[in-house]
Design brief:
This protein has one domain: OB fold (Dihydrolipoamide Acetyltransferase, E2P) (Beta Barrel), CATH 2.40.50.140. The protein starts with a strand and ends in a 17-residue tail after the last strand. With 117 residues, the protein is mainly beta. Strands 1-3-4-6-5 form a five-stranded mixed beta barrel. It contains one helix and six strands.
Length: 117
């Protein structure tokens, strides 16, 4: 079996960083990834949730900001749960590697098309 996801997109908002009760740092953020349909070249934006752990989470919290272009490598994780009597599911990428792709010193884009405030 093989579960690998590689994505390039821009951060929708600054990462949320917290520490679990056992002392492990976790950072969560969302990236916007565009895809096009070949038939009419219409762009569609997917908003994908990313989670990082431990030292990578600390680095993401310190250096990533809204609008920054990043490459994320990790695995797709699907969860299902029940809320208010309804069965729901969620998907997120558990990142093993995050690379910042903006040039050094480049400021983050405050207004990226397609990214809600």
């Amino acid at each position: 079996m093989y579960n690998k996801a590689v994505l390039i997109g821009r951060l929708v908002r600054d990462p949320e960083v917290r520490v679990t009760v056992s002392g492990i740092t976790v950072a969560r953020f969302t990236i916007a990834v565009d895809r096009t349909f070949k038939k009419d070249q219409e762009k569609v934006t997917d908003f994908l949730r990313i989670v990082t752990w431990r030292r990578l989470a600390e680095i993401c919290g310190q250096y990533l900001k809204k609008g920054k272009l990043v490459a994320v490598e990790g695995r797709l994780q699907l969860d299902s749960f029940e809320k208010d009597g309804e069965k729901r599911s969620s998907a997120e990428i558990v990142a093993d590697n995050v690379q910042m792709l903006d040039k050094i010193g480049q400021t983050s884009l405050e207004e990226v098309p397609g990214i809600p405030d």
